Amino acid sequence: MNTERDDRRSSSRQILRTKAQLLFGEGLLLEARTLNFSISGMAIVTDGPIAPGATFSLRCFLPVAGSKAELVTQARVVHSIFSNTDGGFASGVVFIKPSLDVLNLISRALGAYR
């Protein structure tokens, strides 16, 4: 796993301020807030740190065509650092093998900002 390569933003991001849920394999559910998103990943804020490399199921709602559409996909933490500005631990996550439906949803949501 090359986290340095993963940490480079491969596409532009759009601001997204909404709630998210992170479900880990052992059944742990964490609440999070989103900061921004792109076709390849998202920035989130949690109350505690999440170890780089941790994977989870991400659930949040994206703005699409004047309403909100549910996004559910697997994600992996690339980095996590405490941020006074964001009021918690800011983490960069990448989507893991998103389905075509997920990619289409994200594309439509990103199109809402154009």
Provide an overview of this structure.
The protein is mainly beta and 114 residues long. Helices cover 15% and strands 50% of the residues. The protein has helices at residues 3-7, 100-111, and strands at 14-15, 19-23, 29-37, 41-46, 55-64, 67-83, 88-95. A six-stranded antiparallel beta barrel has the order 2-3-4-7-6-5. The longest helix is centred in the last third of the chain and has 12 residues, at 100-111. The radius of gyration is 13 Å and the shape is globular. Mean pLDDT is 90; it is low at 1-7.
Write a concise synopsis of the structure shown:
This protein has 114 residues and is mainly β. It is built from two helices and seven strands, in the order H-E-E-E-E-E-E-E-H.
Biggest β-sheet strands, sense, barrel = 6 strands, antiparallel, barrel
- What is the CA–CA distance across the termini? 34 Å
Segments where pLDDT lies below 50 for 5+ residues?
Answer: 1-7
Number of helices: 2
Quick one: how many beta strands?
7
Which percent range describes the beta-strand content? over 45%
Along the chain, the helix and strand elements come as HEEEEEEEH
What number is the mean pLDDT?
90
Given helix and strand content, the structural type is mainly beta
Provide key terms for this protein:
about 110 residues; mainly beta; disordered N terminus
Helices and strands, with pairings:
Blueprint: H1 3-7, E1 14-15, E2 19-23, E3 29-37, E4 41-46, E5 55-64, E6 67-83, E7 88-95, H2 100-111
Antiparallel strand pairs: 1-3, 2-3, 2-5, 3-4, 4-7, 5-6, 6-7
